[in-house]
Amino acid sequence: MGFLQWLTWVFLQSSTSQCKIFCCALWAIWGDRNDRVHKKESKSGKEIGRFVNSYILELK
Fold first, then answer.
1. Cβ proximity of 29 and 57 under 8 Å
2. How far apart are CA 44 and CA 9, in angstroms?
3. How far is Cα 19 from Cα 39, in angstroms, rounded to an integer?
4. Total structural domains in the chain?
5. Residue 36 to residue 57: CA distance in whole angstroms
6. Domain of 51?
7. Which helix (H) or strand (E) holds 2?
8. Which of 6, 23, 36, 55 could join 42 in a cystine, given CB atoms 3.0 to 4.6 angstroms apart?
9. Each residue's pLDDT tens digit in the chain (60 positions)?
10. Are residues 55 and 26 in contact, defined by beta-carbon separation less than 8 angstroms?
11. How far does the signal peptide extend, from start to end residue (predicted)?
12. Left (φ > 0), alpha (ψ -120 to 50) or beta: where does 40 sit?
C-alpha cells in the first residue's frame, strides 16, 4: 500500500475531529523535524502533544 492509499484509508476510517487531530499532529511532527535539522532544536513527544491539543482548541 502506498502512502496516498494509506492516507486515504486513514481519512475514510476517521471522524472529522480525528482527521483534524491527525493532520495537526503530522504538521507538528514535520515542523519539529525541520527544527531538528535546521536549528538543532527538538521538542519531546509530550511537548508536541500539548501543542497539538492547544492548536485544536484554538481552532474551535
1. no
2. 28
3. 29
4. 1
5. 26
6. 3-59
7. none
8. 36
9. 899 999 999 999 999 999 999 999 999 999 999 999 999 999 999 999 999 999 999 988
10. no
11. 1-19
12. left
